[in-house]
UniProtKB/TrEMBL annotation:
The keyword Hydrolase applies. Residues 38-147 form the Homing endonuclease LAGLIDADG domain. It comes from the Eukaryota. Gene3D superfamilies: Homing endonucleases (3.10.28.10). It holds the Pfam family LAGLIDADG_2. This is Putative LAGLIDADG endonuclease. InterPro entries: Homing_endonucl, LAGLIDADG_dom. GO terms for molecular function: endonuclease activity.
Amino acid sequence: MVGVLIDIVFGNRTSIEIICFTSILKIKTLFFSKEPRFLERRSIWEMETVSHHMWNEYAQLFYPDGTKEVPSDILLEQWLTPRAIAYWYMDDGAIANPNRKATSLNYHGFSLEDNSRLVRFLQKKYGLNTWIKFNKKRPMIMISGHSKMSELVLPFIIPSMHYKFPGPRLRSKPS
């Protein structure tokens, strides 16, 4: 869902790249509480975002009673676009089973009921073969087969994230 918010703010397909790699002071001041840094041992970028009043409206939608939850189906219909799913996948997606070409979307912070709603939404709206699997007693969303998922999100996957997607043409990490 962070991808959805990023897309609302920036409204273009390179917003993840802008946020992750920009040197524009205004954006860094608005989003980051400390300088983003690359952790070589884990090969990941680490960054912390700041709280800002401009996010309050969205916070109310995701934490209406102080507990994290998926917003209404009406908002899912409006916000969970192929671009938002691509951003979600780039952030919290993974190749779950390369042999079966299954992928996963992690949503550990939400309840089983919310994950079930997301599974039903992805099945109904996009025809994806989805189900819930538990990892360390926490639900995650599995997606079988990569061709439908590829068609849906590849136009929005930035090149440096292609390695996270199954399929021979996308498996190599960028140099």
